[in-house]
Design brief:
The complex is a heterodimer of chains A (394) and B (105). Chain A has 394 residues and is an alpha/beta fold. Chain A contains 10 helices and 26 strands. Chain A is globular, with a radius of gyration of 22 Å. Chain B has 1 helix and 10 strands, in the order ββββββββββα. The chains are: A alpha/beta (394), B mainly beta (105).
Chain lengths: 394, 105
């Protein structure tokens, strides 16, 4: 292998380049990134960056010295549009063609939008630094009513940040019990109660039908969110946080199997030799035989070590073992989760109290501790996390 | 000099957060005391809540590992070191010497 091309220049793409070098690959490395930026950290986009307490420079994942050490060729601000696995050529949006021996797919995802959104001014999604800057500009330049659609992590963090900026916020969520499928009803309720603690209204169990808008300087600008029951919540700014779609269109016709992500074996190797996938886009075979895709920072940071090992070996010699660690900061409360919080047959508070928003809870199954959740209890959380039972491979 | 705590309040394997202009974390590694900046150099997290393993502490938020002797991170995502401080025990009380930092400021 003389050339490896990493498509995607965010966390998973960068960690892939680092792993190639760390694991001794000394051939050519090409990185293709649709955004014009060097790799940057996305989690602060809904928190410190949106609040204004961290800057674009703070988000940078590499400095010039790192860049020099990695010795990669960066094609930024261009999109990969096609992969021909027969000839090993990648076509880029600027007309360039790249010849490569191997590919790391790290194209991540794009935010889902709501039908009827059109191109209304004032309606935002949040994925890139441009998204965050545009949203921040509106939040700090006279917006007075914010509606967040979706009470998942991004929606909850954006609501918390808006609250921190002194703006009244309403959250609208289609599911009756958001997060319950992941955390169980009781712990999900503790998480969503953070909004009420701070006077942020959460309307759950109701869908969004569309938006109301007015003509404004020749464009349409949002004025409210129409709910399924016919009522409208007035809004100057709407943030839609209803998940993401993996970016795989460019692989159409490549022979790589795609279905809600790039399908991979247990070691992140795709259906085509010398093509691996990492990060939000990778849907791999889990230890229990199901296909899973993770949309979080830890996975993007950890998965490349395994994927690159298998790519360089030319075979799946290592299975991916996700730590399934997720954190969130909301209203000054630090939330942490690890392991399996979905399949528990019991949950027990080990320390503190959910009412105080300071506690550690263990998720059990068949007598084993399989998952852990904490609020404002990092120390004990880590201790329990390190003792979690590792799932058996079936 | 900043007072941290009584010596007996910090047994081996434990850590404490000292509130100061810049918060400081003090660790007891098998009887040897170390003091470093409490805030991780990567993102906002308290290293005094981190996992102690030998002379290293793992950040409780993103698992960056810092050498308590030098303050230097040994793995991602942290890349910048945290400051280290001399620790002095007088009459059973642990103090952190921050004069180096003040001189540098």
């Amino acid at each position: 292998m003389r050339t490896v091309t990493v498509v995607g220049a965010s966390l998973a793409g960068l960690r892939s380049v680092e792993q190639l070098r760390a694991q001794g690959y000394d051939g050519r490395v090409i990185v293709i990134g649709e955004e014009s930026h060097r790799p940057y950290d996305r989690p602060p986009l809904s928190k410190a960056f949106l609040l204004g307490t961290s800057s674009a420079e703070d988000l940078a994942l590499i400095d010039p010295a790192d860049e020099n050490d990695l010795d990669a060729r960066w094609h930024l601000g261009v999109r990969a549009e096609r992969l021909d696995t027969g000839t090993g050529r990648i076509s880029l949006s600027d007309g360039t063609e790249i010849a490569t021996d191997a590919v790391v797919v790290a194209t991540g995802g794009r935010p889902r939008t709501l039908p009827g959104r059109g191109d209304l001014d004032g309606v935002h999604t949040l994925r890139t630094i441009e998204d965050a800057s545009a949203l921040r500009a509106e939040l700090t330049e006279g917006a007075s009513r914010v509606v967040v659609v979706g009470a998942g992590w991004i929606g909850a963090e954006v609501a918390s940040t808006c609250h921190g900026l002194g703006l009244p916020v309403t959250i609208v969520e289609a599911m009756r019990a958001p997060l319950a499928a992941v955390l169980g009803a009781d712990m999900a309720a503790v998480c969503t109660a953070l909004h009420a603690d701070h006077g942020v209204a959460l309307r759950s169990g109701i869908g969004v039908r569309g938006f109301t808008s007015v003509s404004h300087h020749g464009r349409r600008r949002v004025t409210g969110v129409e709910l399924a029951d016919g009522t409208t919540i007035p809004a100057d700014v709407v943030v839609v946080g209803v998940g993401m779609r993996p970016v795989t269109e460019w692989l159409t016709g490549s022979g790589i199997d795609v279905d809600n992500g790039v399908l991979c074996d247990a070691g992140c190797v795709t259906s085509v030799p010398r093509v691996v996938a990492v990060g939000d886009v990778a849907r791999y075979r889990n230890h229990d035989g199901t296909l899973v895709r993770h949309e979080h920072w830890t996975n993007a940071a950890e998965q490349p070590a395994t994927a690159i090992r298998n790519l360089l070996a030319g075979a799946t010699i290592e299975r991916y073992r996700p730590s399934e660690y997720v954190w969130s900061d909301q209203y000054g409360v630090r939330l942490q989760f690890a392991g399996n919080t979905r399949d528990a047959d019991g949950i027990k508070v080990l320390d503190g109290s959910p009412d105080d928003r300071k506690f550690v809870a263990a998720y059990h199954r068949g007598g084993e501790t399989i998952g852990v959740m904490a609020m404002n209890s990092a120390k004990l959380f880590t201790r329990v996390r390190r003792q979690l039972a590792t799932p058996a491979v079936s | 000099m900043i007072r941290a705590c009584a010596e007996k309040e910090l047994p081996p394997g434990e850590s404490i957060r000292v509130v100061a202009d810049v918060p400081i974390a003090v660790f007891n590694v098998d009887g040897e005391l170390f003091a470093i900046d409490d805030t991780c150099s990567h993102q906002d997290a308290s290293l005094s809540e981190g996992w102690l393993e030998g002379c290293f502490v793992e950040c409780p938020l993103h698992a960056a590992l810092f050498d308590l002797r030098t303050g230097i991170p040994t793995c991602l995502p942290a890349k910048k070191p945290v400051r280290t401080y001399p620790v002095v025990v007088t009459d059973g009380v642990i103090h952190v010497d921050t004069t180096g930092r003040e001189a540098a400021a």
